[in-house]
Design goal:
heterodimer; A: 249 residues; mainly alpha; Ferritin; B: 315 residues; two-stranded antiparallel ribbon; 13 helices; globular
Chain lengths: 249, 315
């Protein structure tokens, strides 16, 4: 297995799938300002997807483009974490999913800007600018909803309880990461999880939300073992490419 | 205020308009002028917001990453236009929430074109090319509208609409040059969107109840029929260029007038859709109403949190 290809696919698929989920909100947001914000977020993620998967295709060297990779793989070949494929639920669920993910992404890109691999460093630098804004946006909503009304507190607490089981996978590592770190392609990720816990903990505390004590963790996405939700996402995402193979659009 | 005073104010108001001096929010204006603008600008805002739905319908199914990104950017622009235009109605004293409730209750209208379904990817091309193309014809003259905030908003809106029109035409061009099934898809979209696009300019001049007053106030600069003719004249050669056929057997070039002549518009269909009987009227309004209802707890929470913060700061 090509470790760098695999690593890029993992990051690219996270962006692709969460971007897809956010785009499902289009026209259905709770206020017009959030319709604008969520399409903007989605747009950022689709941009990141294109950069990451384009580079993955180059690294692989089999002539696959970013579109081939985004649209023409089978379910088990997608390597996004389970968190990003979870359904949107209500606005609070979407913001909680976004918040847990943004906190991780921000810390990840802060490390990856120092990658020796120049392409990864460049993608991380551009993405970090976007991610800082994403994290600010989702954190503010978590605080607003957590410390808003009784109903909003209950709703986002439920969302946190539901999504917490998918957070350990944010820090999943295996031989892919080890090889790239050993080769110096990407920097060490030491302290990533601790920094995330601190950053997430601060916001949740201000939001008067309680971190769930149930520590059952659900993983699988990084190895291509997904929830039932991914199949439906791919059915929509790939519809045109599967129905009309090999055409230019 | 006496009738004499009002008549002097009205006279001065009309003089300003005649001299192309912009009317600003704090200026005196006749009540009808204010109401006409609120109606027109809020209809325009609603059209932008409802218009997100038929295009949003294809974002998750866009055929490649580039098309997906462009479509997202376009729909985001439309939401931005909506926000911009709702703000313009607020400068006239309208309440944004009330305006939106009027849309949901069916009191306020929006462009009927968005009551047609988007059933294929080619519809993203047809909407950009034809619907945004028609919108530009309507909106460019509005950059010179007598009401300052509306005119200024339209300058930015038109720049973005012009990009939308080009990306739509580019989608159609790609399809028209593509495989036989892609070309068929493009032709089918043109067949379905052509006549509703011509209807976007509104009833014939003789039937248009607002045109005369709006032109006197320089809210409108051209009549519906003039704008419709400009659109046909601009669009027919574009269709020819990419090898698509306008679905109108009566369409022909008139050497003498220098314009295209086109067939009769089905006004019965137009009025049915305006009344609410188009293919998607109910879906569109139900969707918008549902979004508002489902978001109520979010807005309440945001208000409650803002209030808490205000109190904490004060204490």
């Amino acid at each position: 297995m090509n470790a760098l290809f695999e690593y890029l696919i993992r990051l690219g698929d996270d962006s692709l799938i969460i971007g897809h989920r956010l785009s499902e909100w289009c026209g259905h947001g709770p206020v017009l300002e959030e319709d604008i914000a969520m399409t903007n977020l989605s747009l950022d993620f689709i941009g990141q997807t294109a950069s990451l998967l384009k580079y993955a295709g180059e690294v692989e060297g089999k002539g696959r483009t970013e579109d081939d990779l985004a649209y023409l793989r089978c379910d088990r070949e997608y390597k996004n974490i389970l968190l990003v494929e979870q359904p949107n639920g209500d606005f609070g669920m979407t913001m909680m999913r976004q918040f847990l993910f943004d906190a991780y992404r921000k810390l990840l890109f802060e490390r990856l800007v120092n990658a020796k691999d120049e392409t990864i460093a460049a993608i991380a630098e551009k993405s970090l600018k976007e991610t800082k804004y994403h994290f600010k946006h989702s954190s503010e909503w978590i605080i607003r909803l957590g410390d808003g009304t009784e109903e909003s507190n209950r709703r986002v607490q439920d969302s946190l309880d539901t999504l917490w089981r998918y957070t350990s996978e944010l820090f999943y590592t295996d031989a892919v990461d080890a090889e790239l770190i050993a080769a110096g392609t990407i920097p060490s990720m030491e302290g990533l999880e601790e920094d995330w816990e601190k950053s997430v903990g601060e916001v949740l505390s201000e939001a008067t939300l309680t971190i769930p004590t149930n520590n059952w963790k659900q993983e699988g996405g990084r190895k291509g073992m997904h929830s039932e939700h991914l199949g439906y996402i791919l059915a929509e995402l790939q519809y045109m490419q599967r129905a009309y193979p090999g055409l230019e659009w | 205020m006496t009738e004499l005073n009002i008549s002097i104010l009205e006279q001065k108001f009309q003089e300003k308009i005649d001299n192309d001096i912009k009317i600003e929010p704090r200026d005196w204006m006749p009540d009808n002028y204010r109401q006409t603008l609120i109606r027109q600008i809020s209809q325009h805002a609603h059209s932008e917001v409802v218009g997100m739905l038929p295009e949003g319908n294809w974002i998750t199914r866009a055929p490649n990453l580039r098309r997906k990104a462009v479509l997202l950017a376009k729909v985001q622009d439309e939401a931005g236009h909506g926000l911009y235009l709702y703000s313009a109605t607020e400068t006239l004293g309208a309440d944004r929430e009330q305006t939106i409730d009027d849309l949901h209750s069916g009191v306020a209208k929006y462009s009927s074109i968005f009551n047609y379904p988007t059933v294929s990817w080619a519809d993203m091309g047809a909407i950009g090319w034809l619907v945004d193309g028609a919108a530009i014809m309507n909106q460019v003259p509005l950059c010179r509208c007598s009401y300052g905030p509306y005119a200024r908003a339209m300058v930015r809106v038109c720049k973005e609409e012009s990009f939308h029109q080009r990306q739509g035409f580019e989608i159609m061009t790609t399809l028209a040059k593509g495989s036989p099934e892609q070309k068929e898809m493009a032709q089918d979209a043109l067949n379905r969107f052509w006549w509703p696009s011509l209807m976007m300019f509104g009833p014939n001049d003789a039937e248009s109840k607002h045109t005369e007053q709006s032109m006197k106030w320089k809210i409108k600069r051209h009549t519906n029929d003039e704008l419709r003719q400009m659109f046909v004249d601009a669009t027919v050669p574009q269709a020819e260029l990419i090898g698509l056929t306008i679905p109108d057997k009566d369409l022909k070039w008139n050497e003498e007038t220098g314009h295209y002549e086109f067939g009769a518009i089905d006004w019965a269909e137009f009025w049915e859709v305006v009344k609410g009987n188009g293919p998607c009227n109910k879906d569109r309004i139900d969707t918008r109403r549902r979004a508002k209802e489902k978001g109520a707890w979010v807005r309440e929470a945001a208000n409650a949190y803002a209030e808490k913060r205000r109190k904490r700061k004060a204490s």
